[in-house]
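Support case: user asked for a sample of complex input and structure output to validate their parser. Sending the pair below.
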Amino acid sequence: MDSLVSPQLLAAAMITGVLYALISLGLNLVYGTMRLLNVAHGDLVMIGAYVAFIAFSLLNIGPLVSMFGAALICGSLGWLSYKCVFQRLLSNGQLLSRLEENSLLLFFALSVIIQNLAILFFSADRKGYEYLSAIVEIGDVRLTGARLTVLIVGAVISAAVVFFLRFSLFGLAMNALIQNRDASAIVGINVDRVQMSSLIFGFGITGLAGALISMMEPITPVMGFPYTMSAFVIIILGGLGNLWGGFLAGLLLGVLEVYGVALTGPEWRSVLVYGIFVLILIFRPQGLLGSGKTAR
Amino acid sequence: MKNSLKLVLAVVLCMFLAGVAGFADEYILGIGFTIFMYIALAQSWVVLSGLTGYISLGHVVFFGSGAYVFILIWGLVPVWLGVVFSGIVVGLVSLIVGYPVLRVRGPYFVILSFGLAELVKNLVLINEARMYVSMRPVFGAPALYQLYIAMLLLAIIATGLTYWIRRSRFGAGLRSIREDEGAAETIGVPVAKLKLLAFAISGVIPAMVGAIFIMRSGIFQSGDAFTPIVSFTMVTMAIIGGSDDAPGPFLGVVFLVLLQELLWVNWPEVYMIILGILLLGFVLFIPNGIYGWLSEKYFGNKKNVT
């Protein structure tokens, strides 16, 4: 076992943390703007990973290019699901009264459909490809080129996304919607359009993260599920709908997970994640950074 | 229909179903077993999630825990005593666990129920790995027709329970929680107590179902016993049928089990996809389920959304 202060472990924690932060950002956007609980979120990671895999093995395009394709494809799925499913959900008074529960059931159904379609198309076997697998040494840290790339690209993209949400007009509109839907409609924000865009944007960055993940992990139709769970742990840790809180919580969970597993053992990983999850929900459902009021 | 006539019909039907066990072949008994199993599960789900609106996506936790308790005491006590014992143990534990869990409301509860089921599953997995068991075979289980009768009995109890609770003072309290928990509490409904009771009742029968189920499958594997597919099927059946009253899940189950019979063996993926599409369609277009829709259309009863 590595010693706990080793830079090796720190690097691993950073990689996991950056990916978590990016993935949970997409989930948080969708929840924050529309109060939709997307339990199919991890399946977007899976789709992104398959896009990168196909691009690499059939077209010989590297994941650093195809990740934008993955973002595009997942974004279109976001558009499609908004048009077909969620626009109806969000405009129907009867369904709206139990919005979160209904959205959860709908995404649950979508997740089952997507996963089984993936099994039909790609079979349940693990897939993977070799990309930048040479070992790079920086000081004491030994990483594969792929993991180093994921760390750098992931960090750059996360920063870009946060910057975008903070300072662009579109990002501000999303923030406004998160804070108060009715008031943002009154000041002239096109709520319907911002909602659709956040779904597209949230889905897109998750697909992109999936393409990054495909560089380091085997690809299977059910690979997304742990990411769904981690993303939920993160946005609840950070406070539902709180973008900054979620971002920090993503990094935090990465650190907790990597160090926790180093202390106990890989079989404890799930117990650790779900344990944090259950405890947070019971004792601090408003999140670590949240005020006394729960986001509802 | 008069209530007494309904009751007579129900009794005749149950006796017929029990009588079938005497001469039906394995295949028919197997289908019957599955139908009764899901009726018992879906009805139990309705007691908690249909009536109180606390939607549980992790009901398999009761099923799996019941199976686990049962396999641990397998061979130590008589079979049927073991089944009842598993139900009681799980019921008591859920009384303790339910107390903090049910303070979490709305969407948080939905996610929590799911997370809890996964947590328990992983703890059992670790525990099993520690004892170096990957699976536990069940030797010398009772014959299929006995299991069939037992499952029929559980289905009857679960249906009767849902029917009775729905019409009792207790059920009225539970439904007031669904409509507006805060208001219910203000006018003096003991919401915490009612929720907890519903949670425990909703767990006992799935636990016993789980115990009987592993005698049928002949093996206990923690991954299978706690699979989220069981939770998913339960929820879909209840929602498709209609989750506000006892007849609803009944309709949903018969429909889906027959579909499963047609597709599961050769095209399991297609089956799951159809299940997903059905759930999607029902939530969006027929949120009251088949039963709610029928009774609205033909009997003019306006049902509440669940």
